[in-house]
Amino acid sequence: MDGVINELRELQAWLIFQDQPEFFDAVKAAIAALSAPPEPKAEPVAWKCDALISMDPDDVEYWTTKGFPVTPLYAHPPAPPEGWVMVPREPTDAMEEAGLDADDTASRVDLVWSVMISAAPPAPETPE
Q1: In this predicted model, which residue has the larger pLDDT, 106 or 59?
Q2: What is the pTM of this model?
Q3: What percent of the chain has pLDDT over 70?
Q4: Of 5, 13, 14, 8, nearest to 27 (Cα)?
Q5: What sign results for the dihedral spanned by CA atoms 48, 54, 59, 61?
Q6: Is the dihedral of CA 24, 30, 36, 39 positive or negative?
Q7: What is the pLDDT at residue 107?
Q8: Residue 45 and residue 28: Cα distance in Å, rounded?
Q9: What is the rounded distance in angstroms from the CA atom of residue 66 to the CA atom of residue 88?
Q10: Distance between CA atoms of 56 and 65, rounded to whole angstroms?
Q11: Cβ atoms within 10 A of the Cβ of 55, count?
Q12: Calpha distance 14→28 (Å, rounded)
């Protein structure tokens, strides 16, 4: 991978003297993407069942066979799906309607924002 990044840097240096900024920007973006550390894999480090917490997968198997709800606990939570942060990047129609219903003068941004967030749909499931 380092060889590819070095070749892209050489290309970037050459492109500085060309009159094609869109190519320079594309190479710069490619270098940044290839140089970025990999995203940590979202794997549970422990599991919670009621008031119990365990790092033993055998406990999880036992709890689930007994029908107890089990919640995975993460050191690195799963990344939200593409296009999402903790809420949608762009408000949905339902969020906008809730915001307008809360205060049609938009003088209370905190109130409008809170009702819009409460109207946000749940994030789609991320593939495992």
Answers
A1: 59
A2: 0.36
A3: 55
A4: 8
A5: positive
A6: positive
A7: 57
A8: 36
A9: 36
A10: 15
A11: 11
A12: 12
